Amino acid sequence: MQSAWFGVLCGFIGLFVGFTFGLVWLKSRNRLLASADLLQPEVPPAATQLLEQLDFFAVVLDKSFSVVFANEAAISHETIPAEFVSGEQFIDQAKSVMRSGVEITQQPDDSESDGIWMHMFKLSGDFIIVLADDRGEEQRLNAMRRDFIANMSHELKTPVASIGLLAEAIIEAADDSERVSGFAATMQKQSKRLADLTNDIILLSEAQSEPSLEELEEVDIAELVTLEVAAHSDYAQQRGVRMVFELKSDEPFTTIGRPSGVRTAIANLLSNAIKHSPSESRVGVLVERKVDSVILQVTDHGSGIEPEDTERIFERFYRVDNARTREEGGTGLGLSIVRHTMLAVGGSVAVWSKPGVGSTFTLTFPALGSGNTADKILERKHKKRKKTLK
């Protein structure tokens, strides 16, 4: 009997000790968790919610400069490398911000290719927020814009200055009819050059702008090429060049685009081919239909283009031979107009050339009726027209 009571007493003491130890452990655990929260506090939810809404790179660093939060844009960002937040310069900047509390903004350097903008500031005394954005494309466009303005200013300055000087020369030579006639002829040439340049700048501006649905129409490439071949026949005869035109398909050659823009692109290729072809040679013009595209090829047998120039001929104001192009009236914008016209209709332009052999320019248009870009654009246009009629 005594042994039974002794067993119950021991069990009770065991339960009491276990319960007491559990309370002590629980209190110790809570103290440890509280200490851990003090050592590593939570990023304020309001901050993470706000950063998650941003569509550019945003991360939060703790006191050890480790990433404790990254928004979706930072996780999926491809142009800002992962090692961006581990570089020596970056860590030094983070230490400076954590120590002084003074924010840092790093602007892209025009001389560098990465173009990363970065802003770093302190949050709640325990965290650093880093915002970053790849502005390389913006830099490239700005550089192109600056180059275009500089080149355009230079191109416009020459004929304008020439016309001014010629006008003065005519006034001074008013009594010499022969000299006046010569100056007037030169003035007329410079005036035409100025008019052509102004017109091409307008055409390039239109080609670079995104066309509205109202501007896009069904375009028969074969019909436009036929019209342009006929329009260039006199010019080809004057140059002693024979044009050979071939349609290679029984299927429709229709695409979608700005008819005037597409016709201008075709005209530029034909005039270039004739201009750069020697007398007694021929220019081949081929239009054919592939499965989902309409192809236009213009081939000449001129002097050809060097490989280093082939990569740049579609740049604005780029000329393979400046003296010859200016003498023949070129503005240096024709092929740039062609490229932007093709981009606007979802097409492409390519060139094959070999010095001493000739060149072939290929325009590839998305064909209607093959379920590609052209059909989708036309469908959108019809839907919008139906809504308007309602």
Task: Describe what this molecule looks like in 3D.
With 390 residues, this protein is α+β, with helices and mostly antiparallel strands. The protein has 3 domains: 45-134, PAS domain (Beta-Lactamase, 2-Layer Sandwich), CATH 3.30.450; 137-208, Signal transduction histidine kinase, dimerisation/phosphotransfer (DHp) domain (Helix Hairpins, Orthogonal Bundle), CATH 1.10.287.130; 212-390, Heat Shock Protein 90 (2-Layer Sandwich). It is 53% helix and 19% strand. It is built from 13 helices and 12 strands. The protein has helices spanning 2-39, 45-53, 72-76, 88-100, 136-172, 177-208, 221-231, 233-238, 259-275, 307-310, 322-327, 334-344, 373-389, and strands at residues 57-61, 67-70, 104-106, 116-123, 127-134, 217-220, 242-248, 254-257, 282-289, 293-300, 348-354, 358-366. The chain has a 5-stranded antiparallel beta sheet with strand order 2-1-5-4-3, with helices on both faces. The chain has a 5-stranded mixed beta sheet with strand order 7-9-10-12-11.
Main attributes?
390 residues; alpha+beta; Beta-Lactamase; Helix Hairpins; Heat Shock Protein 90; 3 domains; five-stranded antiparallel β-sheet; 12 strands; disordered N terminus
What's this model, at a glance?
This protein is an alpha+beta fold. It is built from 13 helices and 12 strands.
Break the fold down into its secondary structure elements and pairings:
Elements: H1 2-39, H2 45-53, E1 57-61, E2 67-70, H3 72-76, H4 88-100, E3 104-106, E4 116-123, E5 127-134, H5 136-172, H6 177-208, E6 217-220, H7 221-231, H8 233-238, E7 242-248, E8 254-257, H9 259-275, E9 282-289, E10 293-300, H10 307-310, H11 322-327, H12 334-344, E11 348-354, E12 358-366, H13 373-389
Parallel strand pairs: 7-9
Antiparallel strand pairs: 1-2, 1-5, 3-4, 4-5, 6-8, 9-10, 10-12, 11-12
